[in-house]
Amino acid sequence: MIIHNSFYFPSSDGKTTIHGEEWLPECAPKAVLQIAHGIAEYVHRYNDFAAFLAENGIAVVGEDHIGHGDSIAKGAPHIYFAEKDGWNKVVSDIHSVRTMYGEKYPDIPYFLMGHSMGSFLARTYLIKFPGDVDGAIIMGTGQQSPALIAGGKAIGTLIGKLNGFDKPHDVVTNLAFGSYTKGIENVRTPLDWLSVNEENVDRYIADPKCGEDATVGLFLDMLGGIGFIRKQENVDKMDVTKPVLFIAGEEDPVGDCRKGVKAAFATFDKAGVKDLTCKLYPGLRHEILNEDCKEKVYEYILKWLLERI
Fold it and tell me: Less crowded by CB within 10 Å, the N or C end of the chain?
């Protein structure tokens, strides 16, 4: 049996109440894992995985990022961070959770896991707060080219000025996600890139807290974050003594079907990270925690954590 609770705290944006969740083992935990979720989803989607870890003695915590899940201020746009410096505001909220649970559990290892957009946030966190966590899991990540980032920023800025940064736009949505189903045979939905598991895709589509189009402002915030984390001089600022696991599906388009994951991994390797692992699953797409073989993924992550506690 585990203990599952919600918690709340004020966001660094000064107006949003952030919703978070914790999954705690009944006994004293061996470690804490903090989750940073992806775009257009929320932390409770990790319930099964978090409960599995808690049942095995690891406390799991995480928050809904600004504009996601239950962290949306009254009247505020969905899937939007802030008018200014939104990316760093979300990183600050992640740090707030780290501080809270570090104070609650000061004497056990603390790990950070980011999936998809959360992987970019986690990589930003490792640079901005070197040594603040005892290890990191980078899941479903990628490494976009400077040209793609610059082009996306130019288009997004123009569209934002014309139509508003706090609204989505079809051109931006297509630019960000439109190519992700290319290469998938017998495409059933525009979101088939998420998972081979059709039930998972259908649950995502049916979930009112999932799948909304990102605003132009969030798209630009994310591009800024991606540009920051791809620079080697920034990656070199990390604490290279802390272990890092890169984990993804080989058919994940966010990671350019392995190429982007390996490119990001290479920057960590070049920085000199001493305990660096890359685990790729053949045939799996973006949400490896929700595929038919998810138990194997759960077990692999648990093993990796226990070996580093």
Answer: N
Task: Kindly report, residue by residue over 222-237, the tens digit of the pLDDT.
Answer: 999 999 999 999 999 9
Task: Count Cβ atoms within 10 A of the Cβ of residue 70 and give its class: 0-12 exposed, 13-18 middle, 19 or more buried.
Answer: middle
- Rounded to whole angstroms, the maximal C-alpha distance in the chain is 55
The residues, ordered by sequence, that sit 6+ positions from 281 with a Cβ below 8 Å of its Cβ are 247, 248, 249, 250, 288, 291, 293, 297
CA–CA dist 54, 102 (Å, integer)? 17
Determine contact, residues 68/79, Cβ cutoff 8 Å.
Answer: yes
Kindly provide the b/e burial profile for residues 79-109, where b requires at least 16 CB atoms within 10 angstroms of the residue's own CB.
bbbbeeebbbbbbebbbbbbebbbeebeeeb
Query: Please, which pLDDT band fits residue 183 given cuts at 50, 70 and 90?
Result: confident
Q: Could you tell me the pTM of the whole model?
A: 0.97
Give per-residue pLDDT as tens, 258-298.
999 999 999 999 999 999 999 999 999 999 999 999 999 99
Contacts of 299 (CB under 8 A, 6+ apart): none
Amino acid at 280: L
Nearest to residue 251, comparing CAs of 288, 223, 200?
Answer: 288
b/e per residue 41-57 (b: at least 16 CB within 10 A): bbbbbbeebbebbbeeb
33-87 confidence digits (pLDDT tens): 999 999 999 999 999 999 999 999 999 999 999 999 999 999 999 999 999 999 9
